[in-house]
Specification:
mainly beta; 45% strand
Protein backbone atom coordinates (compact mmCIF):
# COMPACT_ATOMS: atom_id res chain seq x y z
CA UNK A 1 0.00 0.00 0.00
CA UNK A 2 2.86 2.36 0.86
CA UNK A 3 4.60 1.59 -2.43
CA UNK A 4 1.39 2.27 -4.33
CA UNK A 5 0.96 5.60 -2.54
CA UNK A 6 4.53 6.64 -3.37
CA UNK A 7 4.05 5.65 -7.02
CA UNK A 8 0.81 7.66 -7.21
CA UNK A 9 2.44 10.72 -5.68
CA UNK A 10 5.39 10.51 -8.06
CA UNK A 11 2.98 10.06 -10.95
CA UNK A 12 1.05 13.14 -9.97
CA UNK A 13 4.23 15.19 -9.66
CA UNK A 14 5.47 14.00 -13.05
CA UNK A 15 2.14 14.74 -14.74
CA UNK A 16 1.86 18.14 -13.09
CA UNK A 17 5.36 19.07 -14.25
CA UNK A 18 3.94 19.38 -17.76
CA UNK A 19 2.08 22.51 -16.66
CA UNK A 20 3.51 25.99 -17.00
CA UNK A 21 3.35 26.44 -13.23
CA UNK A 22 3.39 23.91 -10.41
CA UNK A 23 2.80 24.37 -6.71
CA UNK A 24 3.14 21.71 -4.02
CA UNK A 25 1.87 22.64 -0.58
CA UNK A 26 1.31 20.89 2.72
CA UNK A 27 0.01 21.67 6.19
CA UNK A 28 -0.25 19.97 9.56
CA UNK A 29 -1.88 21.04 12.83
CA UNK A 30 -2.41 19.32 16.14
CA UNK A 31 -3.10 20.17 19.78
CA UNK A 32 -1.62 18.73 22.94
CA UNK A 33 -3.31 19.11 26.31
CA UNK A 34 -0.65 18.10 28.87
CA UNK A 35 -3.16 18.33 31.71
CA UNK A 36 -6.84 19.06 32.18
CA UNK A 37 -8.93 19.08 35.35
CA UNK A 38 -12.70 18.62 34.93
CA UNK A 39 -14.90 19.05 38.02
CA UNK A 40 -18.49 17.79 37.75
CA UNK A 41 -21.57 18.91 39.69
CA UNK A 42 -21.30 16.09 42.25
CA UNK A 43 -17.71 17.07 43.05
CA UNK A 44 -16.05 14.29 41.07
CA UNK A 45 -12.83 15.47 39.42
CA UNK A 46 -11.34 13.89 36.33
CA UNK A 47 -7.69 14.40 35.41
CA UNK A 48 -6.94 13.94 31.74
CA UNK A 49 -4.51 14.55 28.91
CA UNK A 50 -4.80 14.31 25.13
CA UNK A 51 -3.24 14.92 21.75
CA UNK A 52 -6.05 15.88 19.41
CA UNK A 53 -7.50 18.00 16.66
CA UNK A 54 -9.59 20.95 17.92
CA UNK A 55 -12.91 19.13 17.63
CA UNK A 56 -11.71 16.58 20.17
CA UNK A 57 -10.63 13.47 18.25
CA UNK A 58 -7.21 11.79 18.68
CA UNK A 59 -5.43 12.61 15.47
CA UNK A 60 -3.57 15.23 13.50
CA UNK A 61 -5.18 17.49 10.92
CA UNK A 62 -2.91 17.46 7.89
CA UNK A 63 -2.83 17.45 4.13
CA UNK A 64 -0.82 17.77 0.97
CA UNK A 65 -1.90 19.56 -2.21
CA UNK A 66 -0.63 19.62 -5.79
CA UNK A 67 -1.70 22.37 -8.20
CA UNK A 68 -0.61 22.66 -11.78
CA UNK A 69 -1.87 25.30 -14.18
CA UNK A 70 -1.33 27.21 -17.36
CA UNK A 71 -3.11 30.37 -18.46
CA UNK A 72 -6.32 28.61 -19.52
CA UNK A 73 -6.51 25.41 -17.52
CA UNK A 74 -5.24 23.46 -14.54
CA UNK A 75 -5.82 20.80 -11.94
CA UNK A 76 -5.83 20.30 -8.19
CA UNK A 77 -5.10 17.08 -6.33
CA UNK A 78 -5.08 16.82 -2.56
CA UNK A 79 -5.06 14.38 0.32
CA UNK A 80 -6.30 15.31 3.79
CA UNK A 81 -6.31 13.27 6.98
CA UNK A 82 -8.40 13.98 10.06
CA UNK A 83 -10.10 11.59 12.45
CA UNK A 84 -13.86 12.09 12.39
CA UNK A 85 -13.69 15.42 10.55
CA UNK A 86 -15.51 17.24 13.30
CA UNK A 87 -18.49 14.99 13.81
CA UNK A 88 -18.68 12.41 11.04
CA UNK A 89 -17.74 8.91 12.18
CA UNK A 90 -14.50 7.67 10.71
CA UNK A 91 -11.70 5.22 11.41
CA UNK A 92 -8.42 6.39 12.99
CA UNK A 93 -6.19 8.18 10.52
CA UNK A 94 -8.98 8.36 7.98
CA UNK A 95 -8.12 10.17 4.78
CA UNK A 96 -10.05 11.94 2.08
CA UNK A 97 -8.84 12.67 -1.39
CA UNK A 98 -9.93 15.72 -3.34
CA UNK A 99 -9.40 16.82 -6.85
CA UNK A 100 -10.73 18.89 -9.69
CA UNK A 101 -9.88 20.06 -13.16
CA UNK A 102 -10.60 23.55 -14.48
CA UNK A 103 -10.61 25.14 -17.91
CA UNK A 104 -11.41 28.59 -19.34
CA UNK A 105 -12.98 27.44 -22.63
CA UNK A 106 -14.25 30.79 -23.98
CA UNK A 107 -11.06 32.85 -23.80
CA UNK A 108 -11.49 33.86 -27.47
CA UNK A 109 -14.42 36.09 -26.39
CA UNK A 110 -13.05 39.11 -24.47
CA UNK A 111 -15.88 39.36 -21.95
CA UNK A 112 -15.77 35.58 -21.36
CA UNK A 113 -12.03 35.18 -20.76
CA UNK A 114 -12.62 34.72 -17.02
CA UNK A 115 -15.43 32.18 -17.48
CA UNK A 116 -14.15 29.04 -15.73
CA UNK A 117 -15.59 25.53 -15.34
CA UNK A 118 -14.42 23.28 -12.47
CA UNK A 119 -15.30 19.57 -12.36
CA UNK A 120 -14.62 17.15 -9.51
CA UNK A 121 -15.06 18.27 -5.91
CA UNK A 122 -14.17 21.98 -6.06
CA UNK A 123 -14.79 24.79 -3.59
CA UNK A 124 -14.39 28.56 -3.72
CA UNK A 125 -14.04 31.08 -0.88
CA UNK A 126 -14.28 34.34 -2.87
CA UNK A 127 -17.63 35.31 -1.32
CA UNK A 128 -17.07 33.71 2.08
CA UNK A 129 -17.31 35.68 5.34
CA UNK A 130 -14.16 37.80 5.66
CA UNK A 131 -13.66 37.80 9.44
CA UNK A 132 -13.06 34.51 11.20
CA UNK A 133 -12.50 33.74 14.86
CA UNK A 134 -10.02 32.15 17.25
CA UNK A 135 -8.31 28.79 16.79
CA UNK A 136 -8.98 28.24 20.51
CA UNK A 137 -12.74 28.85 20.16
CA UNK A 138 -13.80 25.21 20.48
CA UNK A 139 -11.75 24.96 23.67
CA UNK A 140 -13.09 28.15 25.22
CA UNK A 141 -16.64 27.03 24.33
CA UNK A 142 -17.71 23.47 23.58
CA UNK A 143 -19.71 22.66 20.48
CA UNK A 144 -23.29 21.74 21.40
CA UNK A 145 -22.89 18.11 20.31
CA UNK A 146 -19.76 17.87 22.50
CA UNK A 147 -21.69 19.13 25.53
CA UNK A 148 -24.41 16.52 24.96
CA UNK A 149 -21.83 13.76 24.59
CA UNK A 150 -19.75 14.75 27.62
CA UNK A 151 -22.77 15.01 29.92
CA UNK A 152 -24.27 11.75 28.68
CA UNK A 153 -20.99 9.83 29.05
CA UNK A 154 -20.77 10.91 32.67
CA UNK A 155 -24.33 10.01 33.59
CA UNK A 156 -25.88 13.45 33.33
CA UNK A 157 -28.91 14.56 31.34
CA UNK A 158 -27.69 15.81 27.98
CA UNK A 159 -28.99 18.67 25.91
CA UNK A 160 -31.27 18.42 22.89
CA UNK A 161 -29.36 16.80 20.04
CA UNK A 162 -32.00 17.99 17.57
CA UNK A 163 -30.79 21.54 18.18
CA UNK A 164 -27.09 20.93 17.56
CA UNK A 165 -25.16 22.61 14.76
CA UNK A 166 -27.08 25.88 14.86
CA UNK A 167 -24.07 28.22 14.83
CA UNK A 168 -20.52 27.62 13.68
CA UNK A 169 -17.73 28.02 16.26
CA UNK A 170 -14.75 26.51 14.51
CA UNK A 171 -15.29 28.45 11.24
CA UNK A 172 -17.47 31.37 12.36
CA UNK A 173 -16.98 33.21 9.08
CA UNK A 174 -19.58 30.76 7.70
CA UNK A 175 -22.13 32.33 10.05
CA UNK A 176 -21.70 35.53 8.06
CA UNK A 177 -21.62 34.03 4.57
CA UNK A 178 -21.05 30.48 3.33
CA UNK A 179 -18.45 29.65 0.71
CA UNK A 180 -19.17 27.41 -2.27
CA UNK A 181 -19.11 23.77 -1.07
CA UNK A 182 -18.19 24.71 2.52
CA UNK A 183 -17.45 21.32 4.11
CA UNK A 184 -15.44 18.90 2.00
CA UNK A 185 -15.97 16.17 4.64
CA UNK A 186 -19.66 16.92 5.08
CA UNK A 187 -21.05 18.41 8.29
CA UNK A 188 -23.69 17.82 10.97
CA UNK A 189 -25.86 14.72 11.12
CA UNK A 190 -29.33 15.80 9.96
CA UNK A 191 -30.72 17.76 7.03
CA UNK A 192 -32.82 19.75 9.51
CA UNK A 193 -29.78 21.41 11.10
CA UNK A 194 -28.50 24.85 10.09
CA UNK A 195 -24.93 23.73 9.40
CA UNK A 196 -25.81 20.49 7.63
CA UNK A 197 -23.84 19.78 4.47
CA UNK A 198 -23.65 16.45 2.63
CA UNK A 199 -20.51 14.68 1.59
CA UNK A 200 -20.09 15.71 -2.02
CA UNK A 201 -18.80 12.97 -4.31
CA UNK A 202 -19.01 14.79 -7.67
CA UNK A 203 -19.79 18.40 -8.49
CA UNK A 204 -19.46 21.24 -10.97
CA UNK A 205 -18.52 24.84 -10.19
CA UNK A 206 -18.74 27.70 -12.68
CA UNK A 207 -17.24 31.12 -11.94
CA UNK A 208 -17.25 34.26 -14.04
CA UNK A 209 -16.11 37.86 -13.66
CA UNK A 210 -17.88 39.60 -16.56
CA UNK A 211 -16.75 43.05 -15.48
CA UNK A 212 -14.14 44.31 -13.09
CA UNK A 213 -14.98 43.75 -9.38
CA UNK A 214 -18.04 41.55 -10.12
CA UNK A 215 -17.83 37.84 -9.27
CA UNK A 216 -20.53 35.26 -10.10
CA UNK A 217 -20.47 31.62 -9.02
CA UNK A 218 -22.66 28.55 -9.52
CA UNK A 219 -22.22 25.19 -7.76
CA UNK A 220 -24.20 21.99 -8.30
CA UNK A 221 -23.53 18.48 -6.97
CA UNK A 222 -25.36 15.61 -8.69
CA UNK A 223 -23.96 13.08 -6.21
CA UNK A 224 -24.18 13.83 -2.49
CA UNK A 225 -23.54 11.19 0.13
CA UNK A 226 -25.96 10.85 2.99
CA UNK A 227 -29.03 11.86 0.95
CA UNK A 228 -31.80 9.45 -0.03
CA UNK A 229 -34.44 9.52 -2.74
CA UNK A 230 -32.50 11.29 -5.48
CA UNK A 231 -34.54 9.57 -8.16
CA UNK A 232 -31.72 8.38 -10.38
CA UNK A 233 -32.88 5.89 -13.02
CA UNK A 234 -32.60 2.22 -12.16
CA UNK A 235 -32.02 2.43 -8.41
CA UNK A 236 -29.40 4.10 -6.24
CA UNK A 237 -25.70 4.87 -6.46
CA UNK A 238 -23.03 2.78 -4.76
CA UNK A 239 -22.91 5.16 -1.78
CA UNK A 240 -26.69 5.41 -1.25
CA UNK A 241 -27.88 2.03 -0.03
CA UNK A 242 -31.13 2.90 1.73
CA UNK A 243 -33.50 -0.04 0.96
CA UNK A 244 -36.33 2.39 0.26
CA UNK A 245 -34.59 3.32 -3.00
CA UNK A 246 -34.27 -0.20 -4.36
CA UNK A 247 -31.24 -2.37 -5.02
CA UNK A 248 -27.84 -0.71 -5.16
CA UNK A 249 -26.23 -0.38 -8.55
CA UNK A 250 -22.96 -2.03 -9.47
CA UNK A 251 -19.95 0.01 -10.52
CA UNK A 252 -20.39 -0.88 -14.19
CA UNK A 253 -24.11 -0.04 -14.32
CA UNK A 254 -24.45 2.87 -16.75
CA UNK A 255 -27.59 4.05 -15.02
CA UNK A 256 -25.73 4.95 -11.84
CA UNK A 257 -24.87 8.34 -13.33
CA UNK A 258 -28.45 9.34 -14.17
CA UNK A 259 -29.85 11.77 -11.58
CA UNK A 260 -33.18 13.55 -11.46
CA UNK A 261 -32.36 17.00 -12.86
CA UNK A 262 -35.11 18.84 -10.96
CA UNK A 263 -33.90 17.52 -7.60
CA UNK A 264 -30.25 18.16 -8.37
CA UNK A 265 -30.73 21.78 -9.48
CA UNK A 266 -33.12 22.48 -6.63
CA UNK A 267 -30.12 21.95 -4.34
CA UNK A 268 -27.79 24.24 -6.30
CA UNK A 269 -25.76 27.09 -4.80
CA UNK A 270 -25.58 30.32 -6.80
CA UNK A 271 -24.18 33.64 -5.66
CA UNK A 272 -22.59 36.93 -6.68
CA UNK A 273 -20.42 39.60 -5.12
CA UNK A 274 -19.47 43.14 -6.12
CA UNK A 275 -16.65 45.25 -4.73
CA UNK A 276 -17.45 48.95 -4.32
CA UNK A 277 -14.07 50.67 -4.41
CA UNK A 278 -13.23 52.41 -1.18
CA UNK A 279 -16.49 51.27 0.45
CA UNK A 280 -16.84 47.50 0.74
CA UNK A 281 -17.87 44.15 -0.68
CA UNK A 282 -21.55 43.22 -1.19
CA UNK A 283 -22.67 39.65 -1.88
CA UNK A 284 -25.78 37.48 -1.99
CA UNK A 285 -26.53 33.83 -2.70
CA UNK A 286 -29.13 31.08 -2.78
CA UNK A 287 -28.32 27.68 -1.23
CA UNK A 288 -30.92 25.16 -2.31
CA UNK A 289 -29.45 22.31 -0.26
CA UNK A 290 -30.30 24.36 2.85
CA UNK A 291 -33.37 26.24 1.59
CA UNK A 292 -31.83 29.57 2.50
CA UNK A 293 -30.93 32.94 0.96
CA UNK A 294 -27.86 34.76 2.31
CA UNK A 295 -26.76 38.38 2.07
CA UNK A 296 -23.66 40.08 3.46
CA UNK A 297 -21.67 43.30 3.28
CA UNK A 298 -18.07 43.90 4.26
CA UNK A 299 -17.46 47.56 5.13
CA UNK A 300 -13.85 48.64 4.48
CA UNK A 301 -14.26 52.44 4.44
CA UNK A 302 -13.53 52.96 8.14
CA UNK A 303 -9.75 52.82 8.10
CA UNK A 304 -8.41 50.49 10.80
CA UNK A 305 -11.92 49.22 11.57
CA UNK A 306 -13.43 46.56 9.28
CA UNK A 307 -16.98 45.23 9.62
CA UNK A 308 -18.60 42.19 8.02
CA UNK A 309 -22.38 41.90 8.43
CA UNK A 310 -24.46 38.97 7.24
CA UNK A 311 -28.06 37.75 7.22
CA UNK A 312 -29.66 34.41 6.33
CA UNK A 313 -33.30 34.06 5.34
CA UNK A 314 -34.64 30.48 5.32
CA UNK A 315 -37.79 29.16 3.68
CA UNK A 316 -39.78 25.97 4.12
CA UNK A 317 -39.06 22.97 1.94
CA UNK A 318 -41.80 22.17 -0.56
CA UNK A 319 -40.58 18.79 -1.85
CA UNK A 320 -42.74 16.13 -0.15
CA UNK A 321 -40.16 13.47 -0.96
CA UNK A 322 -37.53 15.36 1.03
CA UNK A 323 -38.94 14.51 4.44
CA UNK A 324 -36.10 16.17 6.34
CA UNK A 325 -36.91 19.58 4.82
CA UNK A 326 -40.60 19.41 3.91
CA UNK A 327 -42.57 21.95 5.99
CA UNK A 328 -39.43 22.61 8.03
CA UNK A 329 -37.43 25.82 8.12
CA UNK A 330 -33.95 26.46 9.41
CA UNK A 331 -33.15 29.42 11.65
CA UNK A 332 -32.99 32.99 10.55
CA UNK A 333 -29.45 34.19 11.22
CA UNK A 334 -27.75 37.54 11.78
CA UNK A 335 -24.02 38.09 12.28
CA UNK A 336 -21.76 41.06 12.78
CA UNK A 337 -17.98 40.68 12.98
CA UNK A 338 -15.33 43.38 13.38
CA UNK A 339 -11.57 43.77 13.50
CA UNK A 340 -9.71 46.83 14.71
CA UNK A 341 -5.99 47.57 14.58
CA UNK A 342 -4.01 50.31 16.28
CA UNK A 343 -0.29 49.72 15.80
CA UNK A 344 0.46 46.48 17.71
CA UNK A 345 -2.96 46.23 19.33
CA UNK A 346 -5.71 44.24 17.65
CA UNK A 347 -9.30 43.60 18.64
CA UNK A 348 -11.50 40.93 17.05
CA UNK A 349 -15.14 40.60 18.01
CA UNK A 350 -18.25 38.97 16.65
CA UNK A 351 -21.89 38.34 17.53
CA UNK A 352 -23.71 35.48 15.81
CA UNK A 353 -27.41 34.80 16.34
CA UNK A 354 -29.87 32.15 15.11
CA UNK A 355 -33.60 32.21 15.81
CA UNK A 356 -37.15 31.38 14.66
CA UNK A 357 -36.49 28.12 12.84
CA UNK A 358 -39.67 26.08 12.65
CA UNK A 359 -41.24 22.67 12.02
CA UNK A 360 -44.85 22.65 10.81
CA UNK A 361 -44.90 19.04 9.61
CA UNK A 362 -46.95 17.92 12.61
CA UNK A 363 -50.20 19.03 14.18
CA UNK A 364 -48.60 22.07 15.78
CA UNK A 365 -45.91 24.41 14.53
CA UNK A 366 -42.77 24.26 16.66
CA UNK A 367 -40.54 27.34 16.77
CA UNK A 368 -36.92 27.61 17.88
CA UNK A 369 -35.80 30.26 20.33
CA UNK A 370 -32.70 32.47 20.24
CA UNK A 371 -29.21 31.00 20.07
CA UNK A 372 -26.51 33.67 20.37
CA UNK A 373 -22.71 33.59 20.58
CA UNK A 374 -20.60 36.59 21.62
CA UNK A 375 -16.84 36.30 21.17
CA UNK A 376 -14.12 38.87 21.89
CA UNK A 377 -10.36 38.56 21.30
CA UNK A 378 -8.10 41.49 22.28
CA UNK A 379 -4.39 40.94 21.62
CA UNK A 380 -1.07 42.79 21.61
CA UNK A 381 1.99 41.94 19.55
CA UNK A 382 5.38 42.09 21.28
CA UNK A 383 8.76 41.51 19.67
CA UNK A 384 8.85 37.87 20.83
CA UNK A 385 5.22 37.01 20.11
CA UNK A 386 1.56 37.92 20.62
CA UNK A 387 -0.36 37.84 23.90
CA UNK A 388 -4.14 37.70 23.76
CA UNK A 389 -7.32 36.94 25.65
CA UNK A 390 -10.29 34.89 24.40
CA UNK A 391 -13.69 35.66 25.93
CA UNK A 392 -16.61 33.52 24.76
CA UNK A 393 -20.28 33.40 25.75
CA UNK A 394 -23.21 31.40 24.35
CA UNK A 395 -26.91 31.64 25.19
CA UNK A 396 -29.66 29.31 24.00
CA UNK A 397 -33.28 30.00 24.82
CA UNK A 398 -35.81 27.41 25.94
CA UNK A 399 -38.31 26.87 23.13
CA UNK A 400 -40.91 24.54 21.64
CA UNK A 401 -38.27 21.95 20.72
CA UNK A 402 -36.98 21.38 24.25
CA UNK A 403 -39.89 22.50 26.43
CA UNK A 404 -40.89 19.74 28.81
CA UNK A 405 -38.05 17.46 27.74
CA UNK A 406 -35.49 18.80 30.18
CA UNK A 407 -35.72 21.15 33.18
CA UNK A 408 -37.43 24.07 31.49
CA UNK A 409 -34.45 26.39 31.59
CA UNK A 410 -32.38 28.37 29.13
CA UNK A 411 -28.82 27.31 28.39
CA UNK A 412 -25.66 29.32 29.03
CA UNK A 413 -21.98 28.50 28.61
CA UNK A 414 -18.92 30.74 28.92
CA UNK A 415 -15.17 30.43 28.92
CA UNK A 416 -11.99 32.44 28.79
CA UNK A 417 -8.40 31.87 27.81
CA UNK A 418 -5.14 33.78 28.18
CA UNK A 419 -2.74 32.80 25.42
CA UNK A 420 0.70 33.38 23.87
CA UNK A 421 1.53 32.82 20.19
CA UNK A 422 4.78 32.83 18.22
CA UNK A 423 4.97 32.88 14.43
CA UNK A 424 8.21 31.23 13.31
CA UNK A 425 8.29 31.55 9.55
CA UNK A 426 6.08 28.78 8.24
CA UNK A 427 5.49 27.42 11.76
CA UNK A 428 3.18 28.61 14.54
CA UNK A 429 3.33 27.83 18.25
CA UNK A 430 0.45 28.76 20.56
CA UNK A 431 -0.33 27.91 24.17
CA UNK A 432 -2.75 29.23 26.75
CA UNK A 433 -4.54 28.83 30.07
CA UNK A 434 -8.24 28.14 29.48
CA UNK A 435 -11.17 27.73 31.82
CA UNK A 436 -14.82 26.89 31.17
CA UNK A 437 -17.28 28.12 33.78
CA UNK A 438 -19.74 25.75 35.55
CA UNK A 439 -22.94 27.36 34.26
CA UNK A 440 -26.30 25.75 33.46
CA UNK A 441 -27.04 24.12 30.10
CA UNK A 442 -30.81 23.57 29.88
CA UNK A 443 -31.01 22.87 33.59
CA UNK A 444 -27.91 20.67 33.87
CA UNK A 445 -24.83 22.19 35.46
CA UNK A 446 -21.81 22.09 33.18
CA UNK A 447 -18.49 20.84 34.55
CA UNK A 448 -15.75 23.29 35.47
CA UNK A 449 -12.74 22.85 33.19
CA UNK A 450 -9.20 24.12 33.63
CA UNK A 451 -6.50 23.18 31.13
CA UNK A 452 -3.71 24.50 28.92
CA UNK A 453 -3.62 23.42 25.28
CA UNK A 454 -0.54 23.66 23.09
CA UNK A 455 -1.01 24.13 19.34
CA UNK A 456 1.60 23.36 16.69
CA UNK A 457 0.96 24.28 13.06
CA UNK A 458 3.21 24.16 10.02
CA UNK A 459 2.32 25.02 6.44
CA UNK A 460 4.17 25.70 3.21
Amino acid sequence: MKKLTIICVLGVMLAASAFAQLNVGAYAKSYWIPYRATVFEDGETKHSTAVQVPWGEPDISAGINFDGWSEWGGLHLGLDIAYGAGNVAAHPFSAKGSGWVWVKPLNFIPVMDTFTIYLGNPNDSTLMGKIGGSNFATYVMNNSYSIDRILAQNGYQSGNEERDFRLEKQNPEYNTFTKFNPYSWGNANSNTQNLWWPRVAAAALVTWEPVERLFIGFFVAPEMRGLTGWGNIGGVTWNNTDPINGDPLSDDDINQDYYDAAKVYRRMQIGAGYTIQGVGFARAQYIGARNVIEAAFQLTALGDLTLDIGFKFPFEGTDKEDKAAYKRKRDFQASIAATYRNYDFRLLGRIDAAFAGSDSSGRETLTRGLNMIVYLVPSYQFSVGTVGLDLGFEYEQEDDFNKGKFKGEDAVQAGMGLWFQRNLGNATFKTGLITRLPLSWHGTKLPFDFFFPIMLEVGF
